[in-house]
Amino acid sequence: MECTIDWMPASGMAFSAETGSGHLLTMDGSPDGGGRNLASRPMETVLAGTGACTAYDVVLILRRGRHDVRACRVAVTSERAAQDPKVFTKIHMHFIVTGVSLAPVAVERAIVLSHEKYCSATIMLGKTAAITTSFEVRTAGSDPLSAAAPQT
């Protein structure tokens, strides 16, 4: 895996990254750090990538188990160290998985497998951060705004 990052000096503290797969990603710093708030912060991008990595695993595991999964959302919250290096110290991931006849035990198993075996990002960040998870299962076709009782 490779990536090339270029500073965009005309934008203050913005950076463009071209991934090995040929995709572009833009990141920017906060105004108090010389950025112009034109894009996500680099550490937000790390957090977003981690959430996507584990969501990918969960969907793949459920599909391979022949579960009818229709949607997966991960709401990620975090805390960082107060001093440099400002590593993540706590990360919580709340999964909202929607499907047809989706058993909570299957969702829980998929999350555990992702976090203990497959998700490189969460396993790596788990070296500095306490990672916790929770989840809820929703039935496809139900009101998307109604919250099911959280499963933990």
Characterize the structure shown.
The chain folds into 2 domains: 3-33; 42-139, K homology (KH) domain (GMP Synthetase, Chain A, domain 3), CATH 3.30.300. It has 3 helices and 6 strands. It has helices at 42-64, 104-118, 120-125, and strands at residues 3-8, 14-19, 24-27, 68-80, 88-100, 130-139. A 3-stranded antiparallel sheet has the order 1-2-3, with no helix packed on it. Strands 4-5-6 form a 3-stranded mixed sheet, covered by helices on one side. Helix 1 crosses helix 2 (104-118). It is elongated and about 55 Å long. The two termini are 34 Å apart. Residues 145-152 have low confidence and may be disordered.
- Tell me the structural class: alpha+beta
| Helix-strand sequence | EEEHEEHHE
Which oligomeric state applies?
Answer: single chain
Q: What is the domain total for the residues? A: 2
State the separation between the terminal residues, measured CA to CA: 34 Å
What's the architecture of the largest domain in CATH terms?
2-Layer Sandwich
Mind telling me the C-alpha Rg? 18 Å
Tally of separate helices: 3
Please name the CATH topology of the largest domain: GMP Synthetase, Chain A, domain 3
Q: Which outline best applies?
A: elongated
Which segments are poorly predicted (pLDDT under 50) over 5 or more consecutive residues? 145-152
Q: Residue-averaged pLDDT, rounded?
A: 93
Within the largest sheet, what's the order of strands? Answer: 1-2-3
Q: What is the strand tally?
A: 6
Please indicate the percent range of residues in DSSP E strands (runs of 2 or more).
Answer: 25-35%
Biggest beta-sheet profile: 3 strands, antiparallel
CATH superfamily of the largest domain: K homology (KH) domain
